Amino acid sequence: MDLQQHEPLLTFPFLQPPAPGQTVEVAPGLLWARFALPFSLNHVNVYFIADGDGWAAFDCGIATDSTREQWQALLDGPLAGRPLTRLIISHHHPDHIGLAGWLCERYNLKLLMSQAEYLEGHYIALNPDQMAEGPFRQFYVDHGLSAEATEIVLRQGHGYLRMVTPLPHTFRRLAHGERLRIGDREFEIYTGGGHSSEQVMLYCRAENLFIGADQVLAKISPNVSVWAMEPEGDPLGLYRRSLRELQGQIDADALVLPGHNLPFRGLHLRLQALEEHHAHRCAQLVEACRVAPHSASELVPVMFPRELDPHQLSFAFSEVLAHVNYLVDRDQLRWMPAADGVRRLAAV
Ligand SMILES: [Zn+2]
């Protein structure tokens, strides 16, 4: 199925993203900036919300010298004369949280996050060695992942540390259902699981502005993965529940300000497309396991038929497992006894 099928119906009010060191005003007192990333997904969006005399920042980019230089260009350029007031971080992935520690220390900012994202950021930073050993390694072996791909997945824990500055030891919690006043605006706080544990989104109902972070993107289906820390987790169930909640709570015509890609209108169409995308992938896996039992790694080519490099394979595997756990929890797939040391799945 083509995930882009609803895309022609989305509208993109700002066709040109801001150049490095520049901003685009997406609403009065709400600026959009973009930071480069050294990945195939080559950018992340950051927003600045007028907050009294200064700017509250939403997300902050990865911890590289180039991102620090881009911050300096913004602070010397479009943001000059108005200080940063506080830093809101949507979730603990390095492209969003990377420079949080650096910014909070340098500008004496309070850090606002959901509790799970804050603690998970600390958890990874405090335990770098365990990410590659013991149950974390065995998890991938049990599911039949190749030795090469296993090494790459395990090393991601260490890669994270190189791209994140140490988090402050205190934070202010953002909780689902609460409100947050920033300058003249009142935002409703939403959190959602799936892409990460408790990702924060902000909705200004009066102006119909939805800062959606990575939960809903215009062109990309956000990565929804099972990680070794919670091997029987159901992130896809949490993600689909979050999509339904957003459909019920956020206006269909809201201007969506996402973590990647362009701001857009057409939220409900996009939520529907993402829902159909995952339903289709679930159906593919059940069908494959009806024909013959498959391990999670044998299901990767079913969902991702193209050639994958080991890095892509590691993400693809974790995403397949999210669909597997979802289907096992809902009695559509079942685990078979591991005859050769590899766990395989059959259709129920
Ligand atoms: Zn993310």
UniProtKB/TrEMBL annotation:
It comes from the Bacteria. The keyword Repeat does not apply. Gene3D superfamilies: Ribonuclease Z/Hydroxyacylglutathione hydrolase-like (3.60.15.10), Winged helix-like DNA-binding domain superfamily/Winged helix DNA-binding domain (1.10.10.10). PANTHER family: ENDORIBONUCLEASE LACTB2, METALLO-BETA-LACTAMASE SUPERFAMILY POTEIN. This is Glyoxylase-like metal-dependent hydrolase (Beta-lactamase superfamily II). Residues 43-260 form the Metallo-beta-lactamase domain. The keyword DNA-binding does not apply. It holds the Pfam family Lactamase_B. SMART domains: Lactamase_B (SM00849). Keywords: Hydrolase. One of its GO terms (molecular function) is hydrolase activity.
